[in-house]
Amino acid sequence: MEGKALIMDEKAMSRAINRISYEIIERNKGSEGLCVIGIYSRGVELAQRIAGKIQSVEQRPVPAGCLDITPFRDDGKKFDGISHTDIPFPLDNKQVILVDDVICTGRSVRAAIDGILSMGRPRRIQLAVLIDRGHRELPLRADFIGKNVPTSRDEEICVFVQERDGKDCVIIR
User: Fold this and answer.
1) Would you say residue 43 lies in a domain?
2) Which domain does 91 fall in, by range?
3) Number of domain units in the chain
4) Residue 129: which of 66, 60, 55, 47 has the closest Cα?
5) Who has the most CB within 10 Å: 49, 94, 138, 169?
6) What is the pTM of this model?
7) Which of 149, 67, 81 is nearest to 109 (CA)?
8) 121 and 92 in contact (C-beta within 8 Å)?
9) Cis preceding-peptide flag for 14 (omega within 30 of 0)
10) CATH code (residue 94)
11) What pLDDT, in 10s, does the model give residues 76-119?
12) pLDDT of residue 2 exceeding 60
C-alpha cells in the first residue's frame, strides 16, 4: 500500500460494525420499529452488515434498504435519471438508522435526510458512520461512529468493502 496508511483492517472494521450494532440496540432499547438505510454506495454494504448483526442479536427481522442521494445533492452533480434507491418498506413512524462510510462536510447526510423525508415521516433518524473525519460545513453529527480520523482537507479516506471491492479495509492517502 505505497503512499497510503492503513486506518482499519478487516478485523478492526468488523469490531467497529459490531460495536455500532450493539450501540444501536442499546440506544433504541431493542429493534422494535427499527430500519437501516445505507447511503449508496458503500454505506449500503455497511448497512446490510449492521442490519444483519442487529437481526442476529435481537432474533427479529430488521428491514434494510439503500438510498441514492444524487437527486438531493446541492453540489451541482447532475442526476442521470437512474436511481439506485431501494427502500421496499414504509418509513412513516420508523426509527431510521442512516448509514454512511465516511462523514466529512455533512452535505451527503443532508441530502440523505432530504431523500428520506421525501418518502415518509420517520419518528427519528439516527446516523451511523464508519469514519468521522471532521471538516463539517453543516451542523450535523453522527450518533454512532466506528472511528474518528482527523484529516487535512488534502487527504482522502478510502473505504473498501468485500462485497464491492474484494477486501475490507480503510486507508488514508
Assistant:
1) yes
2) 10-150
3) 1
4) 47
5) 49
6) 0.95
7) 67
8) yes
9) no
10) 3.40.50.2020
11) 677 777 889 999 999 999 999 999 999 999 999 999 999 999 99
12) no
Examine residue 164 and state whether it is found in any structural domain, yes or no: no
* CA–CA separation, 6 and 155 (whole Å): 13
Query: Rounded CA gap, 74 and 65, in Å?
Result: 23
Q: Is 5 inside any structural domain?
A: no
pLDDT for the residue 1: 47
Q: How are beta strands 169-172 and 5-8 bridged, if at all?
A: antiparallel
Task: Encode 123-141: b = buried (16+ Cβ within 10 Å), e = exposed.
Answer: eebbbbbbbbbeeeeeeee
Cell numbers at 111, concatenated: 441530502
What would the 3-class secondary structure string for the chain be? CCCCEEEECHHHHHHHHHHHHHHHHHHCCCCCCEEEEEECCHHHHHHHHHHHHHHHHHCCCCCEEEECCHHHCCCCCCCCCCCCCECCCCCCCCEEEEEEEEECCCHHHHHHHHHHHCCCCCCEEEEEEEEECCCCCCCCCCCEEEEECCCCCCCCEEEECHHHHCCCEEEEC
